[in-house]
Amino acid sequence: MPKLAPVVEVPSAGGLNDFESLVRQHRSRIFRFLIASLRDREAAENLTQDCFVRAFKARDQFRGGSTLGTWLMHIAANLVRDHEANSRLKFWRRKLRADLDPNDLSDWIPDQQKSPEALALAKEQVDAIWRAAANLSERQRTVFLLRFVEDMDLLEIATVTGMKEGTVKTHLFRAVQSVRLGLEERK
Amino acid sequence: MNPHLARHLTREQISKCLMGDATPQESQHIQDCAVCGAEVARLESSFAQFRGSIRRWSDQEEQISRVREIATMNYETHLERLLIPASVDLPWYKGIVISVRELIHPPKLPPLEVTSKPVKLASLKGLYGGHETTAGLGSVIAHVAVVALLLFAGTLKPVQQAMKEFVPLIAPDLKPLQPKPKPEQSKGGGGSPQKTAETKGELPKIAPKSFVPPIRPQDDPKLAVNPTIVAPEMPNINSPNFGNPLAGVGIPSAGNGIGTGIGSGKGPGVGPGSGGGFGGAAYKIGGGVSAPVPVYRPEPEYSEEARKAKWQGAVLLQLVVDENGVPQDIKVIRSLGLGLDQKAIEAVQKWRFKPGQKDGKAVPVSANIEVNFRLL
User: Fold this and answer.
1) Chain B positions in Cβ-Cβ contact with residue A3 (cut-off 8 Å)
2) Protein fold of A1-100
3) Left (φ > 0), alpha (ψ -120 to 50) or beta: where does B73 sit?
């Protein structure tokens, strides 16, 4: 799997105290994870903000056991779980899901001067994955997104989600199997 | 053969490899085995597309949200506004304790000091000059009169008659405008089996049917007929010999194709395609060209390894159905692997079609065919 450039951890003297640079550095990543999980820009924006406020409030509890990015992602994953667990929102969220047009996503395929046919095929595949990801359970989706969008390894995912590595493997395996099934059904 | 190459990876093992949780043997197998390696690479590229799309999409969405909060770009200030002061932000258990205590022993509040006094206002009556009663009565009478007039008018015969009459309306034709069928753009080619490629030259006359091909003209014919080809109107050049105006200069030749045209293709046209016309392809479905219909379609066989791996899916093939209904030029567009592509091609080669037609004549038509492989 091609590894992407890791998020550069600038070891600033302030660390968490330099809030401005903390937000600048990690905002995009947190926002990406949240919007991919929730598929709702408003909610993702709110939770991104919540994530940083929570991090700021709990800055004394950060002991440097993991990288700052992993710690923030841990908070974000918890926020997603809380958001999903909030039963009052369930009805509206389902409605939003139904409204969401998955064609939106396939418009964003990075086209490296592909032939129209290859592009159409790629669009179909991205659509299929996106649809399949929508039907995953919250945990499976989180693990799936962390693995394949954020490109984390299994240990990192275990830290972020607070699950054991074996549990992460189980969830990820089920997620991958369902997404593959979704990909094949589309063919 | 290595022992670990003996069997392909199972579906589960491939999923594990994608997760990054493969055993060393499995990783080695993926490097050595072309089939499993291709499968993993295909899935990985799908996931990479997905990742790229998500990243671009989220960047775009973030741009929108950033633009919106441009006024609060200073995150420090923004954070200060968000944080609740410590005096207000009590933990919930302390809040409960305080509420219970206040319920039992309500804190003594200082006596309420009223700083304003009530003012007596003048009556509203008299603001309208004392004619309120008359005006109200007049309004009621006027309304009743109007309603009574309407009811009375409704009971009149001519009015009822007029209401029953109706004017028939003609529904306008609101069908969506259909685009006019495009003039068919057929492509074709020609040539005769000569060893060299076609030469530059003047394009022969264009006719609906090629009676005399431009190659090997007969010496001293009894009835001279100009050689013709089947093609659309094309730019032409002045040249002593017949040839393709777009070709390079060389030894006079009509190309190495089959048929009576010019070029490397098949049929009476110009270029590398088949049939009449100019260009590099068979006719496309649409624009007056009907689709070929399969009349004999034997089922494809399963390959042994695909059956073992419980491999399912569909192979997409592209082919040209010639004027006899026989498939030609079968190419795999979407492959499935594990020998199923080959089986699909073998099966489709046996298929027979009712050829596609243009103006009532069978013509070669290019088509895509999906061959499904399902295990029961």
Assistant:
1) none
2) Rna Polymerase Sigma Factor; Chain: A (1.10.1740)
3) alpha
CA distances from A166 to A173, A176, A180, B117 (A): 10, 15, 21, 75
Question: How far apart are the C-alpha atoms of A93 and B327, rounded to whole Å?
Answer: 51
- Predicted complex: ipTM over 0.85: no
Q: One fold for both A1-100 and A102-187?
A: no
More confident residue, A168 or A57: A168
Contacts of B49 in chain A (CB under 8 A): 109-110, 122, 125-126
> Can you tell me the mean pLDDT for A36-50?
84
Burial class for B364, CB neighbours closer than 10 Å (0-12, 13-18, 19+): buried
For residues B181 and B1, what is the distance between their CA atoms, to the nearest angstrom? Answer: 59
Q: Does A152 touch chain B (CB under 8 A)?
A: no
DSSP 3-state of B329: strand
Residues A118-136, mean pLDDT to the nearest whole number: 81
CA proximity to A107, closest of A77, A130, A87: A130
**What's the confidence (pLDDT) of residue B1?**
42
B146 against A107, higher pLDDT: B146
Q: Are B29 and B36 in contact (CB under 8 A)?
A: yes
Measured distance CA(B35)–CA(B342) in Å, rounded: 14
Stretch 46-85 of chain A: residues touching chain B, C-beta under 8 Å: 49, 52-53, 56-57
Convert the pLDDT of each residue in B162-179 to its tens digit.
Answer: 888 877 778 877 777 777
Q: Which of A45, A52, A117 sits opposite B65 (nearest CB)?
A: A45
Is residue A176 within 8 angstroms of chain B, CB to CB? yes
**Minimum distance, in Å, between the CA of residue B175 and any CA atom of chain A:** 28
Given pLDDT bands bounded at 50, 70 and 90, which one contains residue B266? low
B292-318 confidence digits (pLDDT tens): 888 888 888 888 888 888 888 888 888
Is pLDDT above 60 for A5? no
A149 touches chain B (CB under 8 A): yes
C-alpha angle with apex A48: A45 to A52, nearest 5 degrees? 145
Q: Which CATH number fits domain A102-187: 3.30.720.210, 3.50.50.60, 1.10.10.10, 3.90.550.10?
A: 1.10.10.10
For residue B318, the 8-state DSSP code is: E
Delineate the domains of chain B, giving CATH numbers in brackets.
3-63 (no CATH), 184-281 (no CATH), 288-373 (3.30.2420.10)
pLDDT per position as a tens digit, A7-30: 434 444 345 567 778 888 888 888
B→A interface, C-beta within 8 Å: 11-12, 15-16, 18-21, 43-44, 46-62, 64-65, 74-76, 79, 82-83, 312-314, 333-334
Nearest Cα of chain A lies from the Cα of B50 at a distance, in angstroms, of 5
Every domain of chain A and the residues it spans: 1-100, 102-187
Chain B touched by A116 (CB under 8 Å): no
